[in-house]
Amino acid sequence: MSATTVPATWNKARQQPGRLARLFDYKPFLVFACLLPALGLLGVFLTYPLGLGIWLAFTDTTIGRRGVWIGFENFEYLFTDPIFWNAVFYSVFYTGVATLGKFALGLWLALLLNNHLPLKSLLRAIILLPWIVPTVLSAIAFWWIYDPQFSIISYLAVDVLGVRTTNFDFLGSAWPARWSLIAANIWRGIPFVAISLLAGLQTISPSLYEAALLDGSTPWQRFRYITFPMLMPILAIVMTFSIIFTFTDFQLVYAITRGGPVNSTHLLATLAFQRGIPGGQLGEGAAIAVSMIPFLIFATLFSYFGLARRKWQQGEGND
Amino acid sequence: MADVSIRQARKSYGSTKVLHGVDVSIGDGEFVVLVGPSGCGKSTLLRMIAGLENITEGEIAIGGKVVNTVPPKDRDIAMVFQNYALYPHMTVRENMAFSMMLAKAPADVIEAEVQRAAKILGLDVLLDRYPRQLSGGQRQRVAMGRAIVRDPQVFLFDEPLSNLDAKLRVQMRSEIKELHQRLKVTTVYVTHDQIEAMTMADQIVVMNGGRIEQSGAPLDLYDTPANLFVAGFIGSPAMNLLSGRVRDGAFHADGGAVMPLPPGAPPTATTYGIRPEHLRLDDAGIAASIIVVEPTGSETQVSLNIGETHLLGAFRERVMGRHGDTLMISPDLDLVHLFGPDGRRL
Ligand SMILES: Nc1ncnc2c1ncn2[C@@H]1O[C@H](COP(=O)(O)OP(=O)(O)O)[C@@H](O)[C@H]1O
Ligand SMILES: [Mg+2]
C-alpha cells in the first residue's frame, strides 16, 4: 500500500457498493428482514395454536383419533349442557366479584402506601409477596387453609375463639367453594392492582392537592375530584388486564377444587381442559375454549373505549 | 381584606433549621414582596402563611387572628403556585369554579363569579379549554383567576412568573400590579428576582439564609441598604463593593484604587460601595482603564480597572473607547455607601 500513490482527492461516490449492501439498502427487503423474527415467533407461538384450537373446535377430534369437520355440532351440544352454562355463569361471577374485590382493596392499599408511612419500602415489598409466589404454591397453601380438618381458620374459630362448634366446610358444597376461590383470587390479584395504582398515584402532582386544600376541599372531595379522575386512565388499563387474567384463570381453581364439588366451580378454562385432556374430547374442549373469545373481545373493547385518551390528556406537552 | 403579621416565626425540618425567627408585618391591602436567593426560605414562609407547612415556633396572624392551628381552608387565602397547579382534567371554567362548587354555591352565582374573574383577566374566550390547550401566560392567568374567584383576604404568589419567557414576564408583572391596584387585596409575593421586587412591591422583605436582612420600601432599600447583602442584592447592575481601608482621608481598595470619601466618613469602613450608575465621567477624576464597553442605547455600561480594582460603570453619555483606553471617572460622593467589618452600613 505504501508504494502506491494515493490520489490527492478521495472521492467516495466512485466506490460501487457490493450486491449485499445494495440488497440491504432496498427498503422492502429491509422491512421484510426486520419483521421476519417477530412474524415467525407470532406465527409459531400465537397464530398456529390459536388457529389449531379454533379448527379443533369444529371437529370431533379425540385423543388418538384424527377428527372430521362437524361444523357447529360441538357448540350445539354445549349449549344444551348445563355444566357448560354453569361454567359460563361462574366465570362471569368469579371475574366480576374478584375484580371488584381486587380493585376496592388494591386502591385502598395504594392510597395507604402513598402516604408517608414508616417502613414504606418494606411494606411495599411485603405487598408484592402474593404475586411473587408461584400460583400453584399459593393454591396449595389455600388448599390447606380451606381443608375440612386442618384449616387454620376453623382452628381459630373453633379452638381459639370458640365462636363455632364445628369446622368450616369451605370446599365441600357449591357456594362456599365458589366464594373461597374468589377470596384466593382476590388475595393473589391485589398486589398487581395496588402497585400499578400506586405508580399512578405518584404521578399526581402534590401541588394539586395543596391547591385543592386551599380551595376548601375535604379529604373525600380530594379523592372524588382529583385522585379518582386523574387515576382513571391507569385504572382502565389495569382493570382490563385484570379482567382478562381473571377470566382466563386456571391454576388456582384447578389446584384447589379441580372444578368440584360436582362441577360447581368450573371456569371455562378448567372445563375446557377437563373435557379436552383428561376427558380426551379435544374437539369439545377446544369449543369451550373458543367460546371464551367473545367475552375476551368484549373486555378488550371495554379497554379500547375506556382507555380512549381523555380530551384533557392528549399530547401532554408543556405548550 | 386583612393585615398579616408574622412574629418570630421559626421553621425546622427535623434538625435542619430553615427559618430562624422572622418578623414581618404586612398592612391591609399592601403588596409585599419576599425576595432572596434560592433556598433562603421564602417559599417555606409563604407556605406557613397558607397553612401548608406547620409553624415550628412563633406566630402568624391574619386579620388580627392567630392562625397557627387554623387549617388552610379556613384561613381565607388564595395561592398561585409556581407551576400553577391547575387541575388538568378540568376546563378553565371548572378550575375557576372549583372552590365555589365545593362550597356548594348556587350555579348562577358560580357562573357570575367566574365570568367576572374571566373578564378581569381576559379569559372569557378560553373558559371551555383544558389547561394543556393554553399557553404559559394564559395558564398563569387562569391560576390568578382561580384565586380571584375565591375573593380571599390574602393573595399569596410563589414565583408565579419564573416559568414565563422574559417578555411575558414583564407584561404579567404589570398585570399583577394592576390587578392589585384594582382589587386592593393584601398580597404576599415571593420571587428571587430583585427587579420584580423593585417594580411591584409596596414593601420589600429581603431574606437570606432563613433570616430577614432588611425590609422597607423599594427605593429606601436602594438608597440605604442596611448591609452588604442587601447592597449587593438590590439594584441592577449590582453595586460595586470594594474592600480595603480608610487612610489619609481616602479609601484605599485592596486592588490599588484610591477612592475619595465624603466629608466626615467613618474611618472604620472596610467596604466601599458605589452603584455603577453613580459613577460620573469627570476629567478631574480617577484614571481607569477600559476592559469592555457595552452600549445598551439608553446608557453605556463600562467594565473598568483602576489598578487591579475592578469596577462597573453605567453612564448616560455614549462612551467611545476600546480595551486599554483610559477613562476619567469619579464617584458621586453623596451616594457612596460605607460598610463596617461586620457588613453593616456605617
Ligand atoms: N421538606 C423539606 N425537608 C427538609 N428541608 C427542606 C424541605 N423543604 C425545604 N427545605 C429546605 O428549606 C430551605 C428553604 O427552602 P425554600 O423555602 O423552598 O427556599 P426558596 O427561598 O428557594 O423558596 C432550603 O434549604 C430547602 O433545602
Ligand atoms: Mg421557592
UniProtKB/TrEMBL annotation, chain A:
Gene3D superfamilies: MetI-like (1.10.3720.10). It comes from the Bacteria. The keyword Transmembrane helix applies. InterPro entries: MetI-like, MetI-like_sf. One of its GO terms (biological process) is transmembrane transport. The chain crosses the membrane at residues 29-58, 87-113, 125-146, 186-204, 225-247, 286-307. GO terms for cellular component: plasma membrane. It is found in: Cell membrane. It is a multi-pass membrane protein. Keywords: Cell membrane, Membrane, Transmembrane, Transmembrane helix, Transport. Residues 88-305 form the ABC transmembrane type-1 domain. The keyword Transport applies. Belongs to the binding-protein-dependent transport system permease family. This is Carbohydrate ABC transporter membrane protein 1 (CUT1 family). The lineage of its organism: Bacteria, Pseudomonadati, Pseudomonadota, Alphaproteobacteria, Acetobacterales.
UniProtKB/TrEMBL annotation, chain B:
It comes from the Bacteria. Residues 4-234 form the ABC transporter domain. Pfam families: ABC_tran, OB_MalK. GO terms for cellular component: ATP-binding cassette (ABC) transporter complex, substrate-binding subunit-containing. One of its GO terms (molecular function) is ATP hydrolysis activity. CDD domains: ABC_MalK_N. Keywords: ATP-binding, Nucleotide-binding, Transport. PROSITE patterns: ABC_TRANSPORTER_1, ABC_TRANSPORTER_2. InterPro entries: AAA+_ATPase, ABC_transporter-like_ATP-bd, ABC_transporter-like_CS, ABC_transpr_MalK-like, ABC_transpr_MalK/UgpC-like, Mo/tungstate-bd_C_term_dom, NA-bd_OB-fold, OB_MalK-like. Belongs to the ABC transporter superfamily. NCBIfam families: PRK11650.1. This is Carbohydrate ABC transporter ATP-binding protein (CUT1 family). It comes from Humitalea rosea.
